[in-house]
Specification:
This protein has eight helices and six strands, in the order αααβαββββααααβ. It is α+β, with helices and mostly antiparallel strands. The protein has two domains: 20-37 and 94-253, no CATH class; 38-92. Keywords: Membrane, Transmembrane, Transmembrane helix.
């Protein structure tokens, strides 16, 4: 079992480990499901089940309205149009699915949010060298708790990770969230390909390895940031090498743009296990 990080209170460490275990376990199930085609099966059942229910409801409506010519024409058209519209919407509209998260806090360390922000960023780029673009922004939020939150964003394919570090009262809050956004029709197509492959599940499991590796790297980087923030504050100019843009929470689409590249930076590095 890992030992508490230097400078990190014991109760915070235990709380973080408990949340990490729950989030990792839940997310691993989802990632395995995605690799084996179970998600595609659930989508097909939902689409077909919804189409059948809508078809039966349309038939019942047509039967009730058969004595009213105008309504009869409309309901007869719905018998075909409504199920088709449902299938199109269910298969073509992108879906966002949360896969897991982890968070922790440090009492009386609100001023160290920038430290977690910068150390996590540099850890992802320099220590882990993740093969993905990491976007950094400071996000201004409004009521009910106005303030500026430090946000890191990265992605691999349809899998997205958001890292947040901010002050909450006198405390420091930091954590990450993993989700995926994908078109259901493409998920079904991949699931069908999986069924036709000779290796079936094995190939899909191997293909999911980069996503799991990104999750592990993000978690370790955030833990490193928290460990440093527990004992000292590191200015962003030392970790980023430039000012970080501040945007309104309503304009987070800028995260998809190519970020500026900062110069070399050095910071107190502590490797953490957790």
């Amino acid at each position: 079992m890992s030992t508490p990080h230097d400078g990190l209170p014991q109760h915070e460490y235990r709380s973080g480990q408990r949340q990490e275990f729950q989030g990792a376990n839940e997310m691993t199930i989802e990632l395995v499901d995605a690799a084996t085609g179970e998600v595609a099966k659930r989508i097909l059942w939902r689409v077909l089940g919804g189409a059948v229910v809508i078809f039966l409801a349309s038939v019942a409506a047509a039967f009730v309205a058969e004595d009213v010519p105008v309504l009869n024409m409309l309901t007869e058209g719905l018998v075909i149009a409504a199920p088709v519209a449902w299938v199109c919407l269910a298969l073509l509209v992108p879906k966002t699915e949360a896969l897991g998260d982890w968070q922790s806090s440090l009492a009386d360390r609100a001023g160290s949010a920038d430290t977690v922000f910068g150390v996590t960023y540099r850890s992802l780029l320099d220590h882990h060298a993740v093969p993905a673009t990491v976007q950094a922004r400071r996000v201004r939020t409004g009521p009910p708790v106005p303030g500026v939150h430090n946000v890191l964003y990265t992605r691999i394919g349809t899998y997205h990770v958001l890292i947040l570090a901010c002050a909450f009262g006198n405390d420091l809050y930091a954590g990450w969230t993993l989700w995926r956004r994908q078109v259901p029709l493409l998920v079904v197509a991949r699931g069908l390909r999986t069924l036709l492959r000779a290796d079936r599940q094995l190939g899909g499991l191997v293909e999911m390895a980069p996503v799991k590796a990104l999750r592990a790297a993000v978690h370790d980087a955030v833990r490193q940031g928290i460990a440093v923030a527990a004992v000292e504050e590191v200015p962003m100019s030392q970790t980023f090498g430039h000012d970080v843009d501040t945007v309104d929470v309503r304009n987070l689409s800028v995260l998809t743009r190519k970020p500026r590249v900062g110069g070399p930076a050095h910071y107190p590095f502590r490797h953490t296990n957790g």
